[in-house]
Design brief:
The chain is of the alpha/beta class. The chain contains ten helices and twelve strands. The chain has three domains: 3-66, Orthogonal Bundle (Arc Repressor Mutant, subunit A); 89-161 and 266-292, D-Maltodextrin-Binding Protein, domain 2, CATH 3.40.190; 164-262, D-Maltodextrin-Binding Protein, domain 2 (3-Layer(aba) Sandwich), CATH 3.40.190.290. It has helices at 3-15, 18-24, 29-43, 59-85, 105-115, 128-136, 183-187, 199-209, 224-232, 279-292; strands at 48-50, 54-57, 91-97, 119-125, 142-146, 155-159, 164-170, 192-194, 219-221, 238-241, 253-262, 267-272. A five-stranded mixed beta sheet has the order 4-3-5-12-6, sandwiched between helices. The two termini are 41 Å apart.
């Protein structure tokens, strides 16, 4: 067994496709399949359900996969720790982010990149629950999520400002006379929304329901990019977070103010309290505390 076999296994889990996993690992698909079969032979268990395409992991495969994640995290952490002993911060900082919040992720990453130029970034859009699980399983290093369900016994966190929202629209397709709009009038517009289950969507739905409103979105997506594309095409408007940088994507996008428009739960940057956690997580968390000018809990 070698570390590459475990990386191949994790790549297959991430892509759920043999060809895509091979491409991610810069090898051919036959090589990937052969190396995974070698791992199965060595462990004497079947890890992958195979048909004409990838059909998931066996029960044994899921258990081995959990160990593989831990071993890869320890492997990467060892190299990052050695680099830190040399005064360098090298490796991939794995960030898990909720899709919508009043936080400009690009500015955050840029600040870290300027401080640690040899650092690379892997960013995943996740629900808050997935972020908690990813931190617990060592699949991500830091998370940016809402703090209402964060257990301080397991996670350190830096509380950030609350998320304010407004109505984002494209001026080429919609025209408004006032700088603000009521929730009642917003409910009458064609709306695009992030999918159900996301914390931001729950807060927006609550704002409508508390006023006896039940808008029916014309588009729902788990992708912020798809929602912005729909806005630019004139398909809809959307309740989106202010101060997130969305309105600066092009000169045609603008916000209208909504009254009492704020996500109740505060936003925060979180890191697991317990070992093992990477030196990348610790250094970047400490750096974030400095340039965000807030105190961690």
């Amino acid at each position: 067994m070698d570390i590459k076999q475990l990386k191949f296994l994790i790549a297959l889990d991430q892509t759920r496709h043999f060809g895509q996993a091979a491409a991610r690992c810069n090898i051919t698909q036959p090589t990937l399949s052969m190396r995974l079969r070698n791992l199965e032979d060595e462990l004497d268990v079947v890890l992958v359900n195979r048909g004409q395409r990838f059909e998931g992991f066996t029960q044994a495969g899921e258990r081995v996969l959990a160990w593989a994640r831990t071993l890869i995290a320890a492997h990467d952490g060892l190299y990052a720790e050695a680099a830190a002993c040399r005064g360098q911060l090298i490796g991939d900082l794995r960030l898990g982010l909720v899709p919508l919040s009043s936080f400009n992720t690009t500015t955050f990453i840029k600040n870290l990149a300027e401080r640690f130029p040899e650092l690379r970034f892997r960013v995943s859009t996740l629900t808050s629950d997935d972020i908690f699980a990813g931190l617990a399983n060592n699949q991500i290093d830091l998370g940016l999520c809402y703090l209402d369900q964060v257990n301080p016994a397991y996670f350190e966190f830096i509380e950030l400002s609350s998320t304010r929202v407004g109505l984002l629209y494209d001026k080429r397709h919609f025209s408004f006379q006032a700088p603000g709009i009521s929730w009642e009038d917003a409910a009458q517009l064609p709306l695009g929304m992030i999918v159900n289950g996301m914390h931001f969507r729950k807060s927006v739905d609550l704002s409508f329901r508390s006023r006896g409103l039940s808008p029916q979105p014309v588009l729902e997506s788990d992708s912020t990019f798809q929602l912005v594309q729909a806005l630019q095409a004139g398909l809809c408007c959307a309740v989106m977070p202010l101060d997130s940088g969305l309105e600066s994507l092009n000169e045609h996008l603008a916000f209208l103010q909504l009254p009492d428009a704020e996500v109740i739960a505060p936003l925060g940057l979180i890191m697991r309290r317990t070992e093992p956690r990477s030196v990348l997580a610790e250094k970047c968390f400490a750096e974030a505390r400095t340039f965000l000018a807030v105190t961690p809990s």
